[in-house]
Amino acid sequence: MSRLHFASALLPSGWANDVQVVITAGAIAAVTAGVQPAAGDERHAIALPGLASLHSHAFQRGMAGLAELRGDSTDTFWTWRETMYRFALAMTPDDVAAVATLLYVEMLEQGFTRVGEFHYLHHDRDGAPYSDPAEMAARIAQAAEASGIALTLLPSFYAHGSFRGAAPHDGQRRFICSVDRFAELMIASRKAISALPGANIGIAPHSLRAVTPDELAAIIPLANGGPVHIHAAEQVQEVEDCLAWSGRRPVQWLLEHAPVDRRWCIIHATHMTDEEVVAFAKSGAVAGLCPITEASLGDGIFPAREFLGAGGTFGVGTDSNVLVGVADELRQLEYGQRLKHRERNVLSSGAGRSTGRTLFDHALAGGAQALAQPTVGLVPGARADIVTLDTTHPSLSGRVGDAAIDGWIFAASSGAIDCVWAGGHKVVEAGHHRLRQTARERFNAAVRRLVA
Q1: Annotation says 268 is catalytic
Q2: Are 84 and 113 found together in one domain?
Q3: 279 contacts 311 by C-beta, under 8 angstroms
Q4: Does 439 reside within a domain?
């Protein structure tokens, strides 16, 4: 058992002063506000619950910054994808473990305490399955265990190169599964995470480009009631191709033909009609927004104001992991809306309300729903995932309550996070993860070889 005392903490009911949190077996056992610190309490200033990155492709952290050379023609998501394929084809299981470990260390240092790993790098470099179908998934689990981050593993089903069941691209050969092979992969993946504290599993049909309707229907039961994540409407070309195939836009098709409900998370959903926005919000599914990656890839800007106005739920993910941070994703989300609408504080929940707090609350709730976490936050029964802010940071000086969140998200480029507990273990102290140096050395060795 351990006891923490916070001068101020964000509880489900709002900000509270002089909060003692008791941690037992990795979970929060008790939360008491309005009490003075007791002997033996570890004391900190401002505490927040950790957030989830609900959408990550860990291996892509290794290629961050390597696709910034303009080609002969217009650079788009589709040209970036070719760089990604080349990088993915070169990676060994040890490379994946090294890259994922550093990524998860960085996530924890930046305030993410759970990751939804949309995992589609399944097979050997020639496309043949490993003797253990979950060889790569096990490396993701190892990285999560080493770093301390909680893992929601989302094995991805990927069978085709485009709509109408088109043959896959050769660069996709490490991703491709039949329904039967994917069922074997799911069994092996459940075993790979079975001993990992706090871990759970869902499924991720990659996209309507990569999965036929019959395959989608066949694999959904493999989630066993767990979360279902799918990319949709990220790019205009994808929308046009989906219309040519089905007469429906991707989000529209899913809402009409798939059992979309609160278990589902539709990733990106950037390009929707007004009717789709309302129908998506009413479905109860989560919009998985990845603002940094969506900006990096030139995807477009999600209709966040309209979606929230219709009662929609969103969480944030780090996707390609080109830049990792809670504050970075939430800031980019709001700034995109400001550029689109030419207004300020677009996503604030009302007059006089903090934009940072609104974004934080939505991301906490949406991430928990998307990753099937029934209890999150600084509340008894929740996993003890806690982030403290450094009140000596110039952008937090003199700030309390929501103003501290605004200072962190909108004014602190780095260094605002002091400590992080993941599953009750303090893994980050004074802004540094305990494995930072070791993880960097392993990552650098792997990436030097891959780049060369």
Answers
A1: yes
A2: yes
A3: no
A4: no
Distance CA 196, CA 117 (A): 14
CATH of the domain at 135: 3.20.20.140
What pLDDT digit, counting tens, does each position of 127-151 carry? 999 999 999 999 999 999 999 999 9
39 with 67, same domain: the answer is: no
pLDDT digits (tens, 9 = 90+) for 94-127: 999 999 999 999 999 999 999 999 999 999 999 9
**Which of 280, 232, 300 is CA-nearest to residue 55?**
232
Q: Quote the CA–CA distance of 218 and 214 in Å, as a whole number.
A: 6
**Does residue 163 share a domain with residue 81?**
yes
Copy the structure tokens of residue 406.
């605004």
Q: Of the listed 229, 268, 393, 433, which one is catalytic?
A: 268
- What predicted TM-score, i.e. pTM, was given to this entire model? 0.97
- 384 vs 174: CA distance, rounded Å: 36
CB atoms within 10 A of CB 91: 24
Q: Is 122 a catalytic site residue?
A: no
Q: Locate 21 and state its tokens.
A: 């949190």
Q: Indicate whether 288 belongs to any domain.
A: yes
Q: How far apart are CA 27 and CA 263, in angstroms?
A: 24
Q: Domain limits at 31?
A: 2-49+386-422
Q: What is the pLDDT of residue 80?
A: 86
The catalytic residue among 319, 328, 406, 418 is: 319
If asked whether residues 131 and 223 sit together in one domain, one would say yes
Separation CA 418–CA 206 (nearest Å): 36
Same domain, 39 and 131: no
Establish if 144 belongs to a structural domain.
Answer: yes
Complete DSSP assignment for 95-116: HHHHHHHHHHHHHHHTTEEEEE
Number of structural domains (the chain) is 2
